[in-house]
Structure formats: C-alpha cells, structure tokens
Design brief:
13% strand, Aldo/keto reductase, NADP, 10 helices, 40% helix, oxidoreductase, 10 strands, TIM Barrel, eight-stranded parallel sheet, two-stranded antiparallel sheet, NAD(P)_OxRdtase_dom_sf
Length: 272
C-alpha cells in the first residue's frame, strides 16, 4: 500500500487512506475478493446492506488473520430507509449479516431513495441521523457519516443534530471534482470519500489520462486513484481481479502541481 498518513475524522478516529470498495461484487464473489484485498495490504473495507454481500464480506474479514480492530469496516443505511426506528432495525440487520459487534463507519447511503432521486427526505434523514447518533454514543459505531449528500442535505443535519458527520462519500474522479461540495466539507472538517474513482472505468481510455499515466510509468487507474489522494479525498477503488487489486494500492508516486491542473481541466465523461 502507498505509505500515506491516514485520514483522521474530527472525533480522532483514523481511517486508512485507501478503501476496498465492494459495490457490484455479488455475495458469492465477495469472500474471495475481500480475502485477496486483505492479503495485499488493504485494511479498509467498504460495503452496504444494499450491496447484498455483507455476509461474505464479514466472513472474509473474520476468517483472515488480522484482529478485528486492525480492519476498518464501513457499511450503509439503505437509501430508501428513513426514520429513527427504521434505522436502528436496518443497523441490526447489517451487524448480524457481518457477524460483527460494531462498525467503524456507518453512512446514510443517500439523501433520497434511488428511484426517487431529488425527493425531499429532510425530516427522515434527520430522524435517521439521530438514531445513528444514539448508536454512536452507545459505542456500536465508531464514526458516522453520509453519502451522496449535497451542501443543503448536510446543512439540514448541522442545523438540527448534535454530531457533525465525519464523512461524506460521493462520486469523485477526474472530470467530476465537485469543488463547491469539497470546499464545504473541508470547512466543516468532513472527510470526503471518493467512490467510483475510475468513473466505473469510463475515464481510463481518456487520451490525456493515458498520456500522463505513461509519463509517470503507472497504469491509468493508478493515476486516477492517486489524483483523488492529491485532492485530499479518500478513494475507494473496486475490482475482483487480483492484479488490479494490487495495482490499485501501489500509489507511491506524486502528481506534479502542473499536471494536476491539466487533469482538473478534463471534462466530465457524463457530459459527452
């Protein structure tokens, strides 16, 4: 793994600077993929109840030689679940699936259901957050946060709740920097986690990225993941291929400020 200092949440909890993402990895493949990641130095594993792979993610971690406290585990409250009691119930399901006594990080997966993107669920999010605050205060979760939340969504939490989110997990990659949201999170000491740092592979054939990767003698994926770190975000690359799992963590290089400016000017692949 790249020798980086860990990110530190505002409550003092440290989180490894690269996470192994498990989105779109079926439960039957999750055991082997997570085991491979652990074998190759990953100590930060990201899953979610909605991924339907928590059982084998948890089994892989339990069967591996590392102590529980040496692995950082994230899971998420499903996007469609809003409310206090509903959140407590979903958390219990996640903990049971994983076979764990506690989580290192628990996130509200999205501010709205995936089939109703943009719906105003402010009150439901507030109630879910209060339930997560309770779980945090009971020691069942070491840190709590959100995912896919805009400035407005986060502000609603700040205006009504006690604990400032420790993390906001958002799509962040070359071409999609979300500068305003990044600055907002930094102001409130919220760590930004970059999911889909490779834009689900859509940016790997970009001529500019290919050319720059060649300059640094790295793969396009390595360049993209390193870019997230250079922008002070925490990347969550995902793969089921052992070679790529290893490569994605070999980031012992830095991108010059001049080259960062070039990468920052690349357009979002979604606009093409």
């Amino acid at each position: 793994m790249a020798k980086e200092i860990t990110f530190t949440f505002h409550n003092g909890i440290e989180i490894p600077n690269i996470g192994f993402g498990t989105w779109q990895i079926p439960n039957e493949e999750a055991y082997a993929s997570v085991t491979t990641a652990l074998e190759n130095g990953y100590t930060h594993i990201d899953t979610a109840l909605a991924y339907q792979n928590e059982q084998n993610v948890g089994k892989a971690i339990k069967d591996f030689s590392l102590a529980r406290e040496d692995v950082f585990i994230t899971s998420k409250l499903p996007a469609q679940i809003k409310g206090y009691e509903e959140t407590l119930k979903a958390f219990d399901e996640t903990i049971t699936n994983l076979g764990m006594d506690y989580l290192d990080l628990y996130l509200i997966h999205a501010p709205w259901p995936w089939d109703e993107v943009g719906k105003d669920c402010t009150e439901g999010n507030i109630q879910s957050w209060k339930a997560m605050e309770q779980l945090y205060n009971e020691g069942k979760i070491r840190s709590i946060g959100v995912s896919n939340f805009s400035e407005r969504d986060i502000q609603a939490i700040l205006d009504t709740c006690t604990i400032v989110p420790m993390a906001n997990q958002i799509p962040f990659y070359i071409g999609r920097d979300q500068e305003s949201l990044l600055a907002y999170c930094k102001k409130h000491k919220i760590v930004v986690e970059a999911y889909s740092p490779l834009a689900t592979g859509q940016i790997l054939n970009s001529p500019a990225i290919l050319e720059m990767a060649k300059k640094y003698s790295v793969t396009p994926a390595q360049l993209c993941i390193r870019y997230c770190l250079e922008r002070e975000t925490l990347p969550l690359p995902k793969s089921t291929n052992e070679t790529r799992i290893i490569e994605n963590s070999q980031l012992d290089f830095t991108i010059s400020s001049e080259d960062l400016k070039i990468l920052e000017k690349i357009e979002d692949v979604r606009t093409k």
